Amino acid sequence: SYREQNLPVTDGSRELHSLCAQLEFLLQFDLKEKRNFFGQRKDYWDFLCQGLARRRQEHEGVRFVTSLDKLKTPVGRARAFLRYCLVHRQLAESLQLCLLDPQSLSEWYYARSPFLSPRRRAEILGSLYELDGITFHLALRRVDLDTAWPMFSEMNERLENIWVGGWMVWWMVRLGGGCRDGWSGGWMMSRWRDGWRDGQLWDGGIPTTAPAVPAPQGWAQSCLATLCVRARQDGERWASALQRAQREAMEREATRGEEQARQQELVRDMKGRLLELLREKDALWQKTEGIDLQMPSTAPRDVGLCARCHKDFRLLSRRYSCRLCQGKVCHTCSVDVGKQGRCCLLCYQQRHQQAT
User: Fold this and answer.
1) The domain spanning residue 310 has which CATH number?
2) Which of 152, 155, 239, 355 can bridge 14 by disulfide, Cβ–Cβ 3.0-4.6 Å?
3) At what angle do helices 118-130 and 91-98 cross, to 10 degrees?
4) Domain named RUN: which ranges (predicted)?
């Protein structure tokens, strides 16, 4: 419609925001995560700079964007570059230079990126070349591109005092959506200011006397009502997006809590299993030493204490059964008697005295 009506696309055009957002989505979709020497994450701005540097020495858009010292983020610089290319009708040509090398595309994008498909890449470039027939009148030195794309509903309004034959009129100029019959507020204001002659609104136009001021006032009220409706729609849309983001955050928090509970339960199970394995290991070790827990013993003792030093047997403490008195003794209070096993020090001394 802009090409048919020979109208320029401005920052107040509704379609501009959709075009820029979709183009940025394509350039960021399935982009590999890369970092520079200082650990900062690279974005599609670095991909564009690298692709253009390989094909030509220096791109005018890159040189212009790097001169904008108020843009601090790679995303903001990339947005300024896309707007520059739209104004100078270089968007399709610049992107085609970046998409010529398949190896470079594989280094920057994963397999799901549409740029890795020759058919989809050709369709995208064909659509972008059609934009060369449309005129874009955009502000190239915007400082708010680091945060987001400029919204079509943004407006810059100003109140001016206009004295018309003793009438005081408060007039709004430079409204975001233009005004009725294709006249912009700024143009209308300049004609009204410069063209007042002998009670007429402007020379060479429709003669309008001073009492006819309510007509532009009614138009201003209609424009203001339209802007209020747009602002309310934007507010409802952003409120819905905020509620959706909050709901997703609550769902993620609930999922994180469930995952944490499962991990804690798994840790408890692992600790319990570890204790069981330690008990089984201790039982097997005692069996290898020939300890029979069911064998009766004539020596009065506490099964949890050493029969000689009365030391408390812990979970991993070594316990031996004396071959003579059947008492449970620790490693310190026992003596190895060879193939016959071990016996306590008291029985060993008595046996040694009998032998001598």
Assistant:
1) 3.30.40.10
2) 152
3) 160
4) 10-143
CA 233 to the chain's CA centroid = 26
Residue 224 placed within a domain: yes
The neighbour count for residue 256, using CB atoms within 10 Å, is: 10
> In angstroms, how far is the first alpha carbon of the chain from the final one?
121
Beta strands in the chain (DSSP E): 9-10, 136-137, 158-164, 167-173, 320-321, 328-329, 334-336, 342-344
Instruction: Dump the DSSP string for 41-96.
Output: BP-HHHHHHHHHHHHSS--HHHHHHHT-TT--SHHHHHHHHHHHHHHTT-HHHHHH
State if pTM tops 0.70.
no
Same domain? For 56 and 121 the reply is: yes
Give yes or no for residue 283 having a pLDDT over 90. no
Burial class (CB in 10 A: 0-12, 13-18, 19+), 321: buried
* The token pair that represents 262 in the structure block: 């499962």
Residue 27, token pair as written in the block: 């350039």
Domain termination residue (choose one: 170, 203, 236): 236
Which residues does 86 contact at the CB level (< 8 Å), separation at least 6? 9, 131, 136, 138
Structure confidence by residue, pLDDT tens digits, 96-134: 988 888 888 989 999 899 999 999 989 999 989 988 888
Q: Which two tokens stand for residue 185?
A: 């507020």
Check if the beta carbon of residue 330 is closer than 8 Å to that of residue 309.
yes
Identify whether residues 108 and 61 lie together within a single domain: yes
- The token pair at 298 is 């004539």
Helix axes 14-28, 44-55, angle to 10 degrees: 80
Contacts of 52 (CB under 8 A, 6+ apart): 59, 62, 94, 97, 98
Angle ∠(9,13,17) on CA atoms, nearest 5: 105
Q: How many domains does the chain have?
A: 3
Q: Are residues 349 and 226 in the same domain?
A: no
Inside any domain, residue 18: yes
Helix axis angle for 91-98 and 44-55, nearest 10°, is 90
Mark whether 25 and 118 lie in a shared domain: yes
